[in-house]
Amino acid sequence: MPPICRGFSDALPCLFSAAHPGMPARGNPAKGNRCVFCNEDWMEEACRTPRGRHNITRSLKAFRAHYEKRSFVYNTAMTRVPEEWHGTFHEAALQGRRGPARKHTPVETQATAATEKWGQHLANRKRAFKHLRSKEVTAYKKRRTADRSRVAKKFFLDNDLPAPQPSDVAPNDCGLPAPTTSDRAKFVELWCKLGSWGICEKCRSLQPRPLEPIDSRRVAKATITAKTCKQCRGKHWVPQPSEIPQPLRKLNGKLIEALRPLDIDVGPHRQAGNGYRIHSAMVRFSWSELGVQAKIRKLRNRRQREKAQAAYDYLMTDEAESSYRDFVKKHNKFLRKFPGATDADRRRPLQFIETVGLECALWPSLYWCAEMCETTERATDSRRLAAAAAAGRNEALSDDEDDEQEGQERHSIKRSFMRKVLSPIIGYGQDFELLQFVYDLTMWSRI
């Protein structure tokens, strides 16, 4: 009598009989009396050969044929397949000789179309900095896999339920199945994934969309018209990737630090239990110990030195509408006057945070024009100008960020920064130092 598969573990018996899905399959004595789905090493080995992949596909087709009554068999089998082969085996199982692929419902058809449209429009969003390194991409993929596994374990495996068949619309989706109670529930979930945001056809900025009754009957389009876009309707300028000066494009973190005449101190690094970084101190600034040219020469890579030098040369010309060169001149003057300055001597006072155009010296690839800066937005507010011009008046002036009146002269640091975060330029929301700077500048203005 042929041996029966021992199962993946004592708590996870085998379910993978091709003839009787849900019953144990035959075990291979050479593989520890386990089947291919209960032996991780055998599964990895089988996926590397055409014959092994053929046998796995044949079994998955058999499980798929009984999906209506025993969906847990197919879903559990797919969890045993390596992640990089999920799409290949799933597609092959649907197109097998046991029957044509299941027809998509209107909900799924709309979701597929909306996902494709989102992919096309999101391709227009460009990174201001250099692309992530392979190590950073690998680390992100590991965190994503761990998050998906944690969700499946919490809601299914810990409750003695089979692993779910994911209903994902993006690579960073949660890996959970779609709702099955009604089409309305499916549409509401798709609003969370695809309809809660829209991208403007004209300025390509993102804009949140509220949940409306019609969203329970259809998937919203990826785009919104210029008439419904806040930025276009208010005639606000939105930065575009093509507007970034060529010498300032694709600069990595090391080059940005070398180009800075100032050092940034955001306080000690403290992490919350849920993973978010804590605001531990107000941002402080100090003149760099070395001049910008000296920092560029210290870069090890020749190409990096050339790229940093090209960016520096551009920023120091009159062609650049940046206040960068003013800070570099002040920095060089300080170094000549105080050649042996200590850390305390180089540290700037707290009110230095409100210096107009400061962002141009700290993030030149994001703020290539002095008029873009949040410090400029703050300094040119009509309320602040009126208070400064009034003789003998010394009343506190707060930057009321909750005021939704967007007049031409009433400026808001929060609205100005969020306009950039939601623009097609990716980078404003990923720099913790910039986020803390804007937060501290807003609080400084309120106080």
Can you offer a commentary on this structure?
This protein has 447 residues and is mainly α. Helix content is 42%, strand content 5%. A three-stranded mixed beta sheet has the order 3-2-4, with no helix packed on it. It has a two-stranded parallel ribbon with strand order 1-7. Strands 5-6 form a two-stranded antiparallel ribbon. The longest helix is centred in the N-terminal third of the chain and has 22 residues, at 134-155.
List keywords for this structure.
single chain, 447 residues, mainly alpha, 3-stranded mixed β-sheet, two-stranded parallel sheet, 18 helices, 7 strands
What is the topological layout?
Blueprint (H helix, E strand, L loop, with lengths): L39 H8 L2 H16 L5 H10 L5 H9 L11 H17 L3 E2 L6 H22 L27 H13 L1 E4 L5 E3 L14 E2 L5 H4 L19 H7 L2 E4 L18 E4 L4 H6 L4 H14 L8 H14 L5 H4 L11 H5 L11 H6 L2 H8 L23 H9 L3 E2 L5 H15 L1
Parallel strand pairs: 1-7, 2-4
Antiparallel strand pairs: 2-3, 5-6
Helix pairs in contact: 1-2, 2-4, 5-7, 9-11
